[in-house]
């Protein structure tokens, strides 16, 4: 197995045993980037010389016998919406084309403090808006399994870089599916953590649970490793969870016998889903049954989830980007501008109703998870689509209203506040990856990872 195919946990062990040096690991990934990135466009800013300096210093540190972090020597490019000191961070926007932050945001600072090597930045749609990765600064990120197809988004560059072996770990963020959707499209694992488990700073809306940052990797064990570094309270993030970060790096093995699984291929009939995706979800339910789980077709009532998500999202985008729209409307893509304008139409009662409905959705989910341990759903409602499209206009023959409708299988789950994970589960007739979405109990992120790990091992035949 080549270095670029090794899991992050295997690389970590080899680095600590000095079977590999950080410089060797870096050079292997730089060669892979040179080979594959031109056709995929996953890494849009490459900090090659900086990475070499950091890798050499990491090797010297280990040789001196100094303590090293959990991610010692592992190369990572950060999502281009995550502030990275001294590295151009554009948010995929012409307005930020030359933006170079003076310091790291909290997530990046934690990853670097743990010993990761900065490779540069991964592509994202303009201001992370949308589940297809393209922007006027860097263009389209393509699916490594079929470059004519979308890699998903908004963490599409991260997922494509993972799937093509350009990096062993990746960071991302998720409001309506931006960690889960690209993971499904590219055949990797993406976790939307419980709000607050991974604190965010700076953050203009620190009290909102709608958007979270989190880990992506090629295996569930690697996601757990990365989450152990990302997680942990910070006083600058008022929702941050006061639990030790190490709780996510423990033993993953779990016997699934007796686990209660509720599943639905279409969220209780609330959304259209392409047949190839629905079949993968059904097959996953059967696999859980073969593992000794108690499986039934059931899910919470998602009535009101669409309006709630749209309201809260529009409010958040207007708050964050309204000034840019006023000052430079020509620099904002039409779909994002329309969403900001929707935010401006909102009234106090509109926001109040969204808050009440979100509470109702939470309690419906609470009751559901009183009788079930895990909810099994589709991640995306359709397989990876044509990369030249802005977004798919219809799903299973049902026309969508706009670019949010095809993401409902993830966005509905976002408003619940539960941890949710995309794990590879099958493929289409054309060989395109399809993941399934596992939703865990409220704030039981690590238990969800244990379930996903067992499912992953069964899928791999281990």
Automatic annotation (TrEMBL):
<dbReference type="InterPro" id="IPR036928">
    <property type="entry name" value="AS_sf"/>
</dbReference>
<dbReference type="Pfam" id="PF01425">
    <property type="entry name" value="Amidase"/>
</dbReference>
<dbReference type="InterPro" id="IPR023631">
    <property type="entry name" value="Amidase_dom"/>
</dbReference>
<dbReference type="InterPro" id="IPR000120">
    <property type="entry name" value="Amidase"/>
</dbReference>
<protein>
    <submittedName>
        <fullName>Amidase</fullName>
    </submittedName>
</protein>
<dbReference type="GO" id="GO:0003824">
    <property type="term" value="F:catalytic activity"/>
</dbReference>
<feature type="domain" description="Amidase">
    <location>
        <begin position="24"/>
        <end position="449"/>
    </location>
</feature>
<dbReference type="InterPro" id="IPR020556">
    <property type="entry name" value="Amidase_CS"/>
</dbReference>
């Amino acid at each position: 197995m080549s270095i670029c195919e090794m899991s992050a946990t295997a690389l970590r062990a080899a680095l600590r045993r000095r079977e590999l040096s950080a410089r060797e690991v870096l050079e292997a990934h730089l060669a892979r980037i040179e080979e594959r990135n031109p056709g995929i466009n996953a890494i849009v800013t490459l900090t090659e010389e900086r990475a070499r300096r950091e890798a050499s210093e990491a090797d010297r540190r280990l040789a001196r016998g100094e303590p090293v972090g959990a991610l010692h020597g592992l190369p990572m490019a950060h999502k281009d919406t995550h502030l990275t000191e001294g590295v151009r961070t554009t948010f995929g926007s012409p307005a930020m084309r030359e933006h170079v932050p003076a310091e790291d945001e909290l997530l990046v600072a934690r990853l670097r403090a743990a010993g990761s090597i900065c490779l540069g930045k991964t592509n994202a749609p303009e201001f992370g808006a949308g589940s297809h990765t393209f922007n006027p600064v860097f263009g389209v990120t393509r699916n490594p399994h079929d470059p004519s197809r979308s890699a998903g988004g908004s963490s599409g560059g991260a997922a494509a870089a993972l799937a093509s072996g350009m990096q062993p770990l990746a960071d991302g963020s998720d409001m309506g599916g931006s960690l889960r959707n690209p993971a499904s499209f590219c055949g990797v694992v993406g976790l939307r953590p419980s709000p607050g488990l991974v604190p965010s700073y700076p953050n203009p809306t620190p009290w909102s649970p709608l958007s979270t940052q989190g880990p992506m990797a090629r295996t569930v064990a690697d996601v757990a490793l990365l989450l152990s570094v990302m997680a942990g309270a910070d006083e600058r993030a008022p929702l941050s969870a006061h639990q030790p970060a190490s709780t996510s790096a423990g033993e993953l093995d779990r016997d699934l016998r007796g686990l209660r699984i509720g599943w639905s291929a279409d969220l209780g009939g609330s959304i259209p889903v392409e047949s190839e995706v629905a079949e993968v979800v059904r097959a996953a339910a059967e696999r859980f049954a073969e593992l000794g789980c108690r499986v039934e077709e059931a899910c919470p009532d998602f009535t009101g989830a669409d309006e709630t998500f749209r309201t809260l999202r529009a409010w958040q985008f207007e708050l964050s980007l309204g000034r840019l729209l006023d000052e430079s409307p020509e620099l904002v893509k039409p779909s994002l501008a329309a969403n900001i304008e929707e935010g401006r139409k909102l009234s106090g009662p509109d926001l109040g109703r969204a808050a009440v409905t979100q509470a109702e959705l939470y309690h419906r989910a609470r009751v559901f998870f009183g009788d079930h341990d895990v909810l099994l759903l589709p991640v995306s409602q359709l397989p990876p689509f044509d990369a030249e499209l802005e977004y798919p206009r219809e799903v299973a023959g049902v026309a969508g209203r706009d670019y949010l409708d095809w993401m409902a299988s993830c966005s509905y789950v976002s408003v619940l506040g539960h941890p949710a994970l995309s794990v590879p589960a099958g493929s289409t007739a054309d060989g395109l990856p399809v993941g399934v979405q596992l939703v865990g109990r409220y704030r039981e992120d690590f238990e969800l990872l244990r379930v996903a790990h067992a499912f992953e091992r069964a899928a791999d035949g281990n």
